[in-house]
Design brief:
68% helix; TRAP_DctM; mainly alpha; TRAP transporter large permease subunit; transmembrane helix; 2 strands; cell inner membrane; transport
């Protein structure tokens, strides 16, 4: 019995593993394990029966959590954009831009994957869309099947780390941190990981060009009447937009001064970036609209096509993420604006229908319900686990690892990497992260950095052969049997499962390299965050002591048992207090001290003989710690 009581938390964790191995859904396994060990612990007297009363409050807290509303909003936004044909248009257009160079189609997949991640945030939608659209084209023009499979699966998983990522929302909620800060911290690592994918494709184009051939001339559809590709016009448009953005960023304070009518000397960097980029891309859109309406021939077909396809999703990204970064909107409000913006874009393209809307709403409801059920199950489990002092057990287990912070981070990331073979990122976020966060915080690890680090690592859960979900998504749309290409009429070989697995391995290694880089350089995450405001607790204490001293001087001489100069009936220090410090009623008036005894003058803190200065000093010491 003593052994069971002393080791109840680890036994409970082993019990959870047994529940999962039985094959039950994760949400129900978590709840069943929590309730089973909860009732057993009550029967054994390990914790009181009042633990059951905590559960309704926790469940109500989940339903009242505004942050989690961002999950269905961003999911709906992504599904509407994906089903309204945005992914197809982006892949076709950017594929034409990069097609003439070796590896151009693979680069287009990476860039479109990043754009879809910034608009959809849903891995399944990105991988399936790009698998259906770009995989047949890459196979048609001779791309290596392993590379084609790997680059599509890996680019789709960028939705894990590029805001507005769903995993970052869940991570922020579990770590008790701001979603906006989590988004800011993830931006640089996300672009660096995208850059690693680009460098890998470019290296193959240089050293193994046969794996990544260029598009043949007959496949390039956007050509001018004279046969040119229209690239000079596109380059000029990009340069003009870039120069306007740089000009706006450098003179943002002057723009504010003109707009507000008062002198503004400085503007936050994130506001400069968002507003300047919005200005640049909006100018490009205006030029393209004028060119389309007037037929002035300002832009080539390629430049006009790129502008109309690329600018609307970019403006939507700036609208959603920009308002979050600037503090204009919360992530929930940003997600709502994004969903409305997606509806407007779908209607403007003429591709929004009732059937599409019903499908998107049904899929959003399923995914949101999936998340909420896992969260409810994880809450039941964690409630009982905490009552059994599980966090202390985890802390003792991990806090004494050799190497301090570095040893802890290496161990945790290896553990997450292994668990990702069997659990997806929702399950890892709800089960493992709440156990690790208190230990990381106690070791002095910034929780935003910790959350982004784990989010990058959790990407591997989608890419692990043989259980990666992104590989399953791609397998569902990749050809399993020989087929006849619709355009060329040639019989094409299928894509085997082993080719998909082999193609994923280099990208898993790149993700692990990114994890190592973030461990060695936490400034890549924390450098993007707003500087923490430091409060001088000693100065605050001095000011409070002065105010308390003045109050004591005003109250001291005139206080009596019947009242004091603060208007308190009977004074805080007399025997006839209406309330005591503990909140209990004091003795009736007829039991108070006789009037002949001089009442003790009230102290500034109001609690009898207690010294408020000492209490204040203790509080300030704790604050400075």
């Amino acid at each position: 019995m003593e052994f069971l009581t002393a080791n109840y938390a680890p036994i409970m964790f082993v019990g959870l593993i047994c529940f999962l191995l039985l094959g039950f859904p994760v949400a129900f396994s978590l709840a069943a394990c929590g309730l089973s060990f909860g009732f057993l612990g009550i029967e054994l007297g390990i914790f009181p029966s009042s633990i059951v009363a905590w559960l309704p409050q926790r469940l109500i807290g989940i339903m009242a959590n505004d942050t989690l509303l961002a999950v269905p909003f961003f999911t709906l936004m992504g599904l509407i954009l994906e089903r309204s044909g945005m992914a197809e248009d982006l892949l076709d257009t950017i594929g034409q831009v990069f097609g003439p160079m070796r590896g151009g189609l693979a680069l287009a997949v990476v860039f479109v994957g990043a754009l879809l991640a910034a608009t959809t945030g849903v891995v399944a939608a990105s991988v399936i869309s790009m698998g259906l659209i770009s995989l047949p084209i890459m196979l048609r023009y001779g791309y290596d099947r392993r590379l084609a499979s790997g680059v599509i699966a890996a680019s789709g998983t960028l939705a894990q780390i590029i805001p507005p990522s769903l995993v970052l929302i869940i991570m922020a909620d579990q770590l008790g941190r701001s979603v906006g800060d989590m988004y800011k911290g993830a931006f640089i690592p996300a672009f660096m990981l995208t850059g690693l994918y680009v460098l890998y494709v470019l290296a193959l184009a240089i050293f193994k060009p046969a794996m990544v051939p260029a598009l043949p001339p007959e496949a390039r559809t956007y050509r001018e009447p004279n046969g040119s590709g229209g690239y000079p016009s596109l380059i000029v448009l990009v340069l003009v937009s870039t120069l306007v953005s740089v000009f706006l960023a450098r003179h943002m304070a002057d723009v504010h001064t003109w707009w507000e009518g008062t002198l503004v000397e400085s503007v936050p960097t994130d506001e400069k970036i968002v507003v300047a980029m919005c200005g640049g891309v909006f100018l490009a859109l205006i030029i393209a609209i004028i060119n389309r309406v007037t037929g002035a021939g300002l832009l080539s077909k390629l430049a006009e096509r790129v502008t109309f396809v690329l600018i609307p999703p970019l403006l939507l990204i700036f609208l959603v993420l920009g308002t979050i970064f600037l503090g204009v909107a919360t992530p929930t409000e940003g997600g709502a604006m994004g969903a409305v913006g997606a509806l407007i874009m779908g209607a403007a393209r003429g591709r929004l229908s009732w059937s599409l809307l019903k499908q998107a709403l049904a899929s959003t409801t399923k995914l949101s319900s999936f998340v909420m059920f896992i969260l409810v199950g994880a809450t039941v489990f964690s409630m009982v686990f905490q009552a059994a002092d599980g966090p202390k057990w985890v802390e003792h287990l991990l806090a004494d690892l050799p190497g301090g912070q570095l040893g802890f981070l290496i161990f945790v990331n290896i553990m997450i990497f292994v668990l990702a073979f069997f659990l997806d990122f929702f399950e890892l976020s709800f089960i493992v992260v709440p156990l690790l966060a208190p230990v990381a915080d106690k070791l002095g690890i910034d929780l935003i950095w910790f959350g982004v680090l784990l989010a990058v690592n959790m990407q591997t859960s989608f890419m692990h052969p043989p259980f990666g979900f992104a590989l399953f998504y791609l397998r569902s749309v990749a050809p399993e049997k020989p087929y006849v290409d619709k355009l060329t009429g040639k019989v094409m070989d299928p894509v085997t499962t082993m080719q998909i697995y082999k193609g994923a391995i280099p990208f898993v290694l790149m993700q692990l390299v990114m994890v190592a880089v973030l461990i060695m350089a936490p400034g890549l995450v924390t450098g993007s965050l707003d500087a923490k405001i430091k409060v001088d607790m000693d100065a605050v204490g001095a000011q409070m002591r002065e105010s308390l001293g003045g109050a004591a001087g005003a109250a001291g001489p005139g206080a009596t048992a019947g009242g004091d100069s603060w208007g308190n009936d009977g004074g805080y220090g007399s025997g006839s207090d209406a309330t005591s410090p503990s909140g209990a009623a004091s003795e009736p008036a007829d039991t108070a001290a006789p009037a002949t005894s001089a009442p003790e003058p009230p102290t500034p803190g109001g609690y009898g003989a207690d010294d408020p200065a000492k209490a204040l000093d203790e509080a300030l010491k704790q604050g400075n710690k």
